[in-house]
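To the wet lab folks,

You asked to see what we're planning to order before we commit. Fair enough. Below is the target structure as tokens, and below that is the sequence we designed to fit it. If anything looks off to you, flag it before the synthesis order goes out.
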């Protein structure tokens, strides 16, 4: 790692403002630890409101006076692809850092998170070439003119991400904003900020962006995050995190009528249809549920199973779950790492107790794994509840941990109704060999993404986001890029003489051009 300057035996990461690494006011810092062991990993600067002011001023200046918003699209695209190349050279180091910092199994970070993040950067580079010009249909009322839409960058964007999927999150915030000519003040989560900080370091070392285009602020969300969101000089807020904080952010952004996009929580359903191939569907819904210990916003945490197959499905889910290895995220053999924090484990354990009180039964897990290797981190067993009622709190509230609720249904229509009976609407999966039927079910689900015979479908060409309280707006794909632009209608009038502007006569008497 090229993390410096070191402080004690862990690296120290300052703030990054206007192209310079700098201490926070009064040199305040906080400690970042490995969830699996509690070992210190790094110290990170804790920004004050004055530091946020400086970062916003730098981004404002870079937007209002700097070259980035006016840099040609092909050039922005070229720079983004060059940055991707630099990220690629650091892939294995980034994977290890992400595993340590977030407790993410190394198989996942090595084969999914970092390569996916890299693919995303290239796709945003490709989308950066998209023309800001959109022709409009011919309009000859009141007479002929040439009309088009020009896409302006939005301005200064405040971007806040959570601790899960941190590297990909950082990528899908920063790069669409850059691709469309915006400038950025970016804040990662205090719980796992390191891969995002490393990404900013790569951007800095490249020297490819004008100063102030990307700025990094670190510190507690309730303080610096909230202050950043409410800053009057911010034009757009892009937030990924909990629905609870998202609600607050919308309120804080309201007085200045800021543009807000929110990617929030979920309680996504996976629906097994009666004709599903269970060899595939059992592993598929478990992948949907227990990937990263269920700490993914679009995790398929409610599974709807036909009554006729219920006992077989439970038995097979239990059998496969028993084979999952909980352990050290840096061990290639580990399937499930620790949770992000002890606080998060308290929450998960409260929900396990609640599920039992609500009358559902634990068919596997429900406790902490036993052994010395589990003593220093917030580990919890993958847990499956059978006979869950969709209206119970276990099936309605986002737990953000490895707790799977299995719900029975009689008719497919009932499964669809229950799947939609949620305040959330982020993602879903449908498991069936009859693709036509699966598409019909997919169309009736009120969610932003549906996987047919697949669950975690993050495709940078596709819009990602939620219905209902899972969010507002979209990220990724063309739809996500457009969220970083303001459409501007430009009208070019073709009348060469005043006499052609007959509609002005409704106010002003016609000119006598002969006189
Ligand atoms: P969180 O508590 O809402 O925090 C998310 C981010 O917001 C962190 O950077 C946090 O900073 C900051 N923050 C906290 N309070 C804030 C406030 N009052 N004003 C401004 N910023 C504030 O969420 P989390 O626990 O980190 O992440 C898990 C949640 O994210 C889950 O609900 C999950 O579903 C959701 N999520 C959604 C998506 C999606 O795309 N829809 C993707 C991933 C995760 P600090 O951590 O430094 O305090
Ligand atoms: Mg949090």
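Sequence we intend to order:
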């Amino acid at each position: 790692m090229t993390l410096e300057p070191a402080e004690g035996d862990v690296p120290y990461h300052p703030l990054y403002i206007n192209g310079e690494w700098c201490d926070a006011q009064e040199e305040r810092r906080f400690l970042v630890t490995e969830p699996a062991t509690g070992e210190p990993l790094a110290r990170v600067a804790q920004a004050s409101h004055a530091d946020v002011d400086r970062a916003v001023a730098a981004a404002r200046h870079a937007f209002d006076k700097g070259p980035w918003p006016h840099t040609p699209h092909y050039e922005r695209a070229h720079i983004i692809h060059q940055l991707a190349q630099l990220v690629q050279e650091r892939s294995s180091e980034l994977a290890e850092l992400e595993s340590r910092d977030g407790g993410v199994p190394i198989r996942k970070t090595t084969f999914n998170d970092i390569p996916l993040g890299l693919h995303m950067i290239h796709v945003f580079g490709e989308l950066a070439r998209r023309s800001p010009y959109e022709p409009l249909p011919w309009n000859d009322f009141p007479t002929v003119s040439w009309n088009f839409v020009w896409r302006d960058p939005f301005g200064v964007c405040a971007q806040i991400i959570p601790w899960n999927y941190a590297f990909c999150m950082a990528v899908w915030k920063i790069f669409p904003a850059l691709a469309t000519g915006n400038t950025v003040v970016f804040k990662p989560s205090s719980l796992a900020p390191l891969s995002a900080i490393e990404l900013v370091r790569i951007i800095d070392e490249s020297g490819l962006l004008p100063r102030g285009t990307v700025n990094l602020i670190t510190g507690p969300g309730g303080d610096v995050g909230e202050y950043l969101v409410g800053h009057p000089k911010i034009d757009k807020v892009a937030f990924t995190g909990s629905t609870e904080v998202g609600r607050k952010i919308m309120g804080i952004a309201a007085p200045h009528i800021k543009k807000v996009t929110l990617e929030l929580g979920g309680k996504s359903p996976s629906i097994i249809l009666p004709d599903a191939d269970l060899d595939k569907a059992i592993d598929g819904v478990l992948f949907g549920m227990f990937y990263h210990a269920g700490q993914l916003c679009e995790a398929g945490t409610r599974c709807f199973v036909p009554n006729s197959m219920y006992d077989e499905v439970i038995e097979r889910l239990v059998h496969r779950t028993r084979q999952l290895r909980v352990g050290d995220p840096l061990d290639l053999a580990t399937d499930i790492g620790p949770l992000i924090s002890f606080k998060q484990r308290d929450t998960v354990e409260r929900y396990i107790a609640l599920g039992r009180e609500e009358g559902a039964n634990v068919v596997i897990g429900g406790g902490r794994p036993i052994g010395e290797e589990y003593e220093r981190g917030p580990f919890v067993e993958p847990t499956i509840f059978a006979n869950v009622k969709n209206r119970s709190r276990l099936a309605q509230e986002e737990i953000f941990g490895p707790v799977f609720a299995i719900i029975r249904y009689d008719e497919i229509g009932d499964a669809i109704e229950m799947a939609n009976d949620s305040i959330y609407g982020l993602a879903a999966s449908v498991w069936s060999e009859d693709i036509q039927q699966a598409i019909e079910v997919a169309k009736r689900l009120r969610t932003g993404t549906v996987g047919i015979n697949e669950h975690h479908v993050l495709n940078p060409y596709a819009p990602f986001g939620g219905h209902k309280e899972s969010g507002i707006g979209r990220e990724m794909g063309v739809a996500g890029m457009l969220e970083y632009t303001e459409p501007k209608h430009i009208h070019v009038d073709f009348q060469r003489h005043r006499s052609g502007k007959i509609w002005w006569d409704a106010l002003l008497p016609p000119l006598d051009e002969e006189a």
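Structural context that might help your review: The pocket of NAP (ligand 1) is lined by residues 160-165, 187, 189-191, 220-222, 225-226, 229, 240-242, 245, 248-249, 263-266, 297, 398, 400, 426, 466, 471 (CB under 6 Å). The chain has two domains: 28-133+148-264+468-489, 269-452.

Thanks,
Computational group
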